[in-house]
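Student: Hello, beginner here. Can you help me understand the protein record under this note? Any guidance would be welcome.
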Amino acid sequence: MTIYNFSAGPAVLPKPVLEKAQSEFLDYRGSGMSVMELSHRSSLFDDIIKKAEALLRELMGIPDNYKVLFLQGGASLQFSMVPLNLAQGKKALYANTGSWSKKAISAAKALENVEVEVIASSEADNFTYIPTITEDMIDQEAAYLHITTNNTIVGTAYQSIPKAGKVPIVADMSSNILANDYKVEDFGIIYAGAQKNIGPAGLTVVIIRDDLIGLCPVAEPMLDYKIQADNDSLYNTPPTFAIYIAKLVFEWLQEKGGVPGILKEDQEKAGLLYEAIANSALFKSPVREDSRSITNIPFVTGDAELDKKFNAEALAAGFQNLKGHRSVGGMRASLYNAFPKQGVRDLIAFMEAFEKENGGA
């Protein structure tokens, strides 16, 4: 039985990457050591981290006036790092589009000297769309505007990035980094947990414009962007194996035609599933059409017991991790870059068979 992993994260990795890592696992480049055993100060790892950064810069078109940091703590640590480094004694603006936005807002509010203002929210409608943000809504004296570009739980995504005037946009891009056509220069900071489109859990990528580094005094060295940037992400031992896997994923992406090539594939995969849902009399998308993610696609029958039955039968058929997040229920297909198109085709065939057997009109 073929197993398809629809997990929202940690997520499916490219098979060629896993095979390459397997081949080098016990002896990296004739060193007699595993990659996991390499000193982060060694020439071998220095080559890995430098190549990983160079590849990411090429893939995303990162300008020279941005630093790339390889950190730890997950994207969730950035919920605190961003306001600590940018907004002490200032106002921070947020768009509330789902669970992760709410956590970012909560983390900023926990800081005594940061004023938080939520300028747009879709919470009243269960986060089923991305609210409009116009420049006139944005206080030009604010430290930043924070958005979550793709919301894994509810399946929404920004189709275009708001215009914020002189206010830098900070983006949690964890679930659609390297799977979109956004321009880095439209952001002040991009951060992303690696475990969806980059590599294994444990690595967090931060892309930060130079002029946003060192704005506020940060008493905690590990949380200071300036210290991390000054030390080239080596202030302490970084997640070496995760950075190595990220490098392999970046190489794989290059071979796939870079971001334009993989984005075309992602759009095709999502298009197949959205079309199947639209043509179904049983399954429906809870997300407004103009806000739909191509990365995380929720769908429901409208009957919680029928959803439960579908999830159980899908799991038995090899469709792993299709069950929707506990906060929303239903089903969710996470179609990250490494997820195969055949898996989408097979899921659609399974959905059609289930609908035929369970009363689709």
